[in-house]
Amino acid sequence: MTAIALDLTSVVDLTDEQFSKLCQTNPDIKLERTAKGELIVMPPTGGETGDRNSEINFQLRAWNKQNLLGKVFDSSTGFKLPNGADRSPDASWVKLERWQALTPAQRQKFPPLAPDFVVELRSASDEIKPLQNKMQEYRDNGVRLGWLIDPQNQQVEIYRQGQDVEVVRMLEASAKRSPSTLSGEDVLPGFVLNLQDIC
Amino acid sequence: MTAITLDFHSVVDLTDEQFSKLCQTNPDIKLERTAKGELIVMPPTGWGTGNRNGRLTQQLFNWADADSTGIAFDSSTGFKLPNGADRSPDAAWVRQERIDALNPDPDKFLPLAPDFVVELMSATDNLKTTQAKMQEYRDNGVRLGWLIDPKTQQVEIYRQGQDVEVVRMLEASAKPSPSTLSGEDVLPEFVLVLKDIF
After folding, report:
1. H helical segments located in chain B
2. Suppose B45 and one of A2, B49, B129, B178 were both cysteines; which one would form an S-S bond, judging by CB atoms 3.0 to 4.6 Å apart?
3. How far apart are CA A22 and CA A14, in angstroms?
């Protein structure tokens, strides 16, 4: 569904505690905050997007259970990025050493770090430009691998550190016999996302 | 588009000035506030709803100009209701003498419940929520309220001290004359033609 940006900064500067409280008292709404302090308000997603998102999280979690190299987070998790933004990727993964380096209090709250890996899944009513900006923000804040999955256009944008965005068209891949897949590369060793039920 | 209710008051209680400022700094978003202090955030409407709403406003303004006993308002206008809620009906009208009695600051929200309000449903609006809003208008003294739902081709009419009347427009439009709504004794001689709104 459409995300709405609400500029609160002229009226009130929410502390991290206030923002966290706002998220808790509005559990049905996904809230993010830009580095400039604007509130991003997102209504619950439709069923189709929820199903696809659940599939991504399921596959990522299954891979992680076998390797135990890190922690998987679902779309309800907030991260405090180095630039000050509060963001909730649709799926994410943090390397175990980085997670263990956090204090128990930091783990309890929105973890103050950029995940190693993030996924954003575009829903039919999402505009592509704000999602691309979000992916660039993730990369600028240190996310090593990011996938912007766009089922509508059957394509995936791959964001890597120090590289241009790679656009992979899934139609071409699915023309082959094998189902289309994405590789976790060196960030998620051995992880292969099967896009059959997603794109 | 879907309105989102954000419970804000657990974190910060916005003053009327702060709420007004928030509206000004977010001109693309329609904001309301419930009596409990929840913020209602509404993204811009689709073009279909925008056009229907414009036609509705056009007819009301044309009548109000000719009638000249009151002032009509478009959907960007905020009203501070007696119960404390800040609401923006899709169209509204207020008798001139009520405004004269208050001598209100034109740069602020009008601190009263309009005599007449219209809410126009868009495809993604929730009927239950809009009905609750209409009841709130009535409870706060609005004398006539129309909830127009183009999708189901029906109008709910809210009047003081009466049950809601539901008018199905399909039946009316089967006749040769276009379906219309009467302004009753609140808007004397006003007749809304629903042809381009439904």
Report:
1. 16-25, 47-67, 96-102, 127-139, 169-174
2. B49
3. 9
Contact between A26 and A62 (Cβ < 8 Å) = no
CATH for B72 = 3.90.1570.10
Q: Residue B112 corresponds to which tokens in the numbers above?
A: 């009263």
| Each residue's pLDDT tens digit, B41-96 | 988 888 999 999 999 999 999 999 999 999 999 999 999 999 999 999 999 999 99
Give phi and psi for B170, each to the nearest 5.
-60, -45
Residue B2 confidence (pLDDT):
72
The token pair that represents A129 in the structure block:
């430009």
Which chain B residues contact residue A6 at CB under 8 A? 22, 26, 29, 41
Dihedral of the alpha carbons of B90, B96, B101, B106, in degrees to the nearest 10: 50
Q: Is residue B21 part of a domain?
A: no
- List the domains of chain A with CATH numbers: 46-194 (3.90.1570.10)
Q: Which of A7, A10, A22 sits opposite B11 (nearest CB)?
A: A22
Contact state of A26 with B11 under an 8 Å Cβ cutoff: no
Amino acid at B66: A
Q: Which residues does chain A have within 8 Å of residue B32's beta carbon, measured at their own beta carbons?
A: none
Of all residues in chain A, what percent carry a pLDDT higher than 70? 95
Count of alpha carbons within 13 Å of B41, Cβ hemisphere only? 22
Secondary structure element (H or E) that encloses residue A58, with its range: helix A47-67
Q: Please provide the average confidence, as pLDDT, over all residues in chain A.
A: 91
Q: Residue B153: inside a domain, yes or no?
A: yes
Q: How far apart are the first and last CA of chain A?
A: 18
